[in-house]
Fold Amidase family protein.
Amino acid sequence: MQDWLWMSAADLGRGIGAGQIDPIALTDTYLDAIDNHEHSARIYSVVTHDRARAEARAASERASSGQRRGPLDGVPISWKDLVDSAGVATEAGSKLLEGRTPARDGAVLRNATAAGLVCLGKTHMSELAFSGLGLNPMTATPPCINDAGAVPGGSSSGAAASVAFGLAACGVGSDTGGSVRIPSAWNDLVGLKTTSGRLSLEGVVPLAAKFDTIGPLCRSVEDAALMLAVLGGGAAPDLRSASLRGMRFAALQTVVMEDMRETPLAAYHDAVKRLQDAGADVTPLDAPEVDEAMPMSGILFTAEAYGTWGPVIEAAPDRMFGPIRDRFRSGADARAADYVAAWQRLDQLRADWAVRVAGYDAVIMPTAANLPPDAKRLMEDGSYYLTENLLTLRNTRVGNLMGVSSVTLPTGVPSCGIMFCGASNGEERLLRVARAAEAALT
């Protein structure tokens, strides 16, 4: 049964469907692993034992009677602590929301429950989702699978750790500037950033609602595809016969290749070579619109974030970690006219980007320019914290600024991912591309 903890969600679902895995035994195996894991309290903010067991019993009955609701019916997953769950604390990693207990599940959790998935509980995260590092001294900092002294990436830090440490078959997180993809990359997982608006944000604690997205952190592209269908209440894309032969990739050069650290740079170049060896055509691409958009992220993200949370923060500022509080406050003095103008300009830049990349199957780049930073040094060295936080989210932010779907895949080098950006609302096509790339990179 311990082998179940390391299987993909899709394989677990197939085992249930074949009568080889009982959802009750599977859920108990996960709950026992959580309850006895040395890092459990740093990964899960709440473990919903009663709900998980009740959902597992129902899934077991459906499996026995041939009435399974879908390929992941009976599979246990975790939820980032910003997706509302009825009667369970949902505090978005912040002391400011301590005791916040919604009466109703968020829309994506309702969809997952309707599809038969089992809710294991809620996972720790960066405060109000506003950091890519995963460092949270106010509640908990989850571990990184590859470095006990490093941060795991954020803000979906616990979501990634829950999967990487075998405490969930999949984690559901959110991504505003990289918060699904960074912890996925640093913990050697597949992470899907969906297009803004593709999945419902009803019952999701916001950061910057115009950029916020929901997405899965999982073991395989197949899992990501199945989870996209579950979260959206639709059908999964067909990944069969996906091949790199004849695919055209644009290797983005603008901004994303600057200040790359040695290990992730080497891992990226090796991954690109393997894509080429498998039949993909890779062409360097410069995109001036990315260069122009990057500085605009300051006003676009921080103004909306502070506009959303400013009064709550200022009512109890000492209940926040200083660097996170300061990042929110950097949006306090933004002029409304500048914010509106920035959005109008970004809309044009997105249109320019769409034209520039229309002939490619995906745009590729390193997921992160750096490796997971040392947690102790982040707490002690303010300049190190600032440098690493900004560098961490730089490349992933391209997908958010350009308004497109994006997925990160492991390269085989620990904590080094390669990112594929597709079209806006082009998740199905992107996942076929990613499945083909996964086969070449594994």
Remarks:
- Residues 2-232 form a domain with the Amidase signature (AS) enzymes fold (CATH 3.90.1300.10).
- The chain has two domains: 2-232, 248-290+332-441.
